[in-house]
Amino acid sequence: PPNVFVPMLESLGLIDEVGAWVIVQALAETADWSAVDDGFRVAVNVSPLQLNRETFADRVLELIAGVTRGTQRLELEVTESTLMADPRRASASLARLRDAGITIAIDDFGTGHSSLRVLAGLPVDVLKIDRSFVRDITTNRSNRLIVQTTINLANSLGLKTVAEGVETNEQAAVLADLGCWSIQGYLIRKP
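-> C-alpha cells emitted (191 positions)
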C-alpha cells in the first residue's frame, strides 16, 4: 500500500525529491490530456513532512513556473490530521498555492480532529470523504448521516465533495442522492 512508502521516503530523506518528481509527471500528463476532456484533475498527495517545510509552497511554485498548460488540473491532497498539526503554517502555504490556481483537497476527511472554526478558514476547495464512511453507506444509518452532514457542511462552505472508496453502484446511487459532487474508487477504475 502507498501509505507504507511515505514514511520510508521521509526517513530516507527522499520525500521532497520524489514529491517534486510526482508533481512534474502529473503536470506533463495533464498537459497532454487537455484536449481530451476539460473536467478532470490529477491529485497528488502531500506528505506531512513536505507541507511542514517553510519552503514547500516556493518549491511547488518553482516546479509549475515553467509549465504552460495543465497547472489548472493539479490538485494537492493533504490529510486532515496534517492540516490540524499546524493550521497557520499549512494555511499560509496552501493559500499561496491556491492563488496560483492549484486546487487543494482535504483527504480522509472525518478521520482527524478538525476544528470547524479552523476548517472554515482554510484555503481548500474539496473535502474528500474517507472510505470508512462510504463502505457501509447503504446499510449503516450512522455512516450515511455522517456523509450527509459532511456534504452539507462542504456545500455551506462552498466546497466540493469527493467520496473515496466507492465500489458498488448502490453506493454511487446513495452518494448521488445525498448530493456528493464526485466519487472515486474501484467502481470507476483501479488506481
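The first strand starts at residue 42 and ends at 45.
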